[in-house]
Write a structure and sequence with these properties.
alpha/beta, binds flavin mononucleotide
Length: 358
């Protein structure tokens, strides 16, 4: 079924992006989209934060907002999936339309504003998944955010840490969506130090599992902000960084009717910006904090570039919209060839190698 995507794509693209997404989720749930063949290679395996990643390619947050298609996604060949962003209370997000495609430039703009089913139902879905699947199927990260009306962000993040830690392999603190007013301000040094202090303390007080906490950042940070954040993440003992979320940039080459849409831009136009951010954060943190690289990945070369720049793992979303459900398998196959070409015995050997070569 999966290789038929090239025939299905023109039909899917006739439907508005959000309906197309709902159709895709339904197809995944019903099992219509089944993998043609599994691909695995020991070269791609990696252990990080005590978790076993069977390959470095993950699905990034926003695709499976309500934890509904965890197993089908992992069975497509992704080594991990990051579900959410979930907020404590259910919310509808912004008025529709709120997702826009520019297929020629491999780009998407979204201003969804965290529509999701809320923590109670999300937890039930995740609990059901855990009861029926072995952890070896793949790593499941949980991306947490705050409700739009919340005036005390830490309260929402701490609540979600307490509610979901038992089931999450790792937690991602999303402070970088451009679609929730004030959220990105949490990236400033004072608020960030305060927030992360409370979150790590909440995690330490848990009686059961204490999952690693990662922070997901925007690509639109000044050099000074990047320096401050790197220092804060290290001093707050955060476990990793996800670089990056969507950008507010609008490159000149985008057509005006697309470019004028409000929201976060993803896909090819954010690729180099996110790679530059990875390279800089690797330097600023002296390689002490594992980085998940995300932004504009659609080929093995794109993924490899992020790994060579300092990412230990990668994620993608927009690439799957344009390339289809075989994308993870194809990138993994391509990565094995690229590692072999460059004489690396494993994916770990290639991480940040771009920093050390001439
Ligand atoms: C439609 C859409 C919805 C998204 N929703 C979320 C979200 O809920 N939480 C989040 O952290 N990132 C979200 N993202 C950002 C992606 O996870 C990713 O960081 C960004 O799109 C860059 O990667 P890409 O170019 O591979 O899409 C969303 C992206 C898109 C396109």
């Amino acid at each position: 079924m999966l290789h038929l995507y090239k025939y299905a794509k023109p039909l899917i693209f006739k439907v508005d992006p959000e309906s197309a997404h709902q159709i895709t989720l339904r197809a995944l749930k019903t099992g219509i989209l089944r993998p043609c063949s599994g691909f695995s290679s020991d070269t791609l395996k990696q252990s990080l934060w005590g978790l076993e990643f069977k390959n470095p390619v993950g699905l990034s947050a926003g695709f499976d907002k309500n934890a509904e298609v965890i197993a089908p996604i992992l069975k497509l060949g992704f080594g991990s999936t990051e579900i959410g962003t979930v907020t404590p209370l259910p919310q509808n997000g912004n008025p529709k339309p709120r997702i826009f495609r520019d297929p020629e430039r491999g780009a998407v703009i979204n201003r969804l504003g965290f529509p999701n089913c809320g923590a109670v139902l999300f937890k039930k879905h995740l609990e059901d998944y855990r009861k029926t699947h072995d952890r070896s199927l793949g790593v499941v990260g949980v991306n947490i955010g705050m409700n739009k009306e919340q005036t005390d962000p830490a309260a929402d993040y701490c609540f979600l840490i307490k509610e979901l830690s038992e089931y999450a392999d790792y937690l991602t603190v999303n402070i970088s969506s451009p679609n929730t007013p004030g959220l990105r301000d949490l990236q400033e040094k004072g608020p960030l130090t305060d927030l992360l202090g409370k979150l790590t303390q909440t995690r330490e007080e848990l009686e059961g599992r204490k999952p690693p906490i990662l922070v997901k950042l925007a690509p639109d940070l000044t050099e000074k902000q990047q320096e401050d954040i790197a220092e804060t993440l290290l001093s707050c003992k955060i476990d990793g960084i996800i670089l990056s979320n969507t950008t507010l940039d609008r490159p000149d080459y985008l057509p005006p009717d697309f470019s004028d849409q409000k929201g976060g831009l993803s896909g090819l136009p954010v690729k180099d910006k996110s790679t530059a951010l990875i390279r800089n954060f690797y330097k600023l943190t002296k390689g002490k904090l594992p980085i998940i690289g995300v932004g504009g990945i659609s080929t093995a070369e794109d993924a490899y570039e992020k790994i060579k720049s300092g990412a230990s793992l990668v994620q993608l979303y927009t690439g799957m919209i344009y390339e289809g459900p075989l994308i993870a398998q194809n990138i993994n196959k391509g990565l094995v060839d690229l590692l072999e070409r460059d004489g690396h015995n494993s994916i770990s050997d290639a991480i940040a190698c771009g920093h050390f070569s001439a």
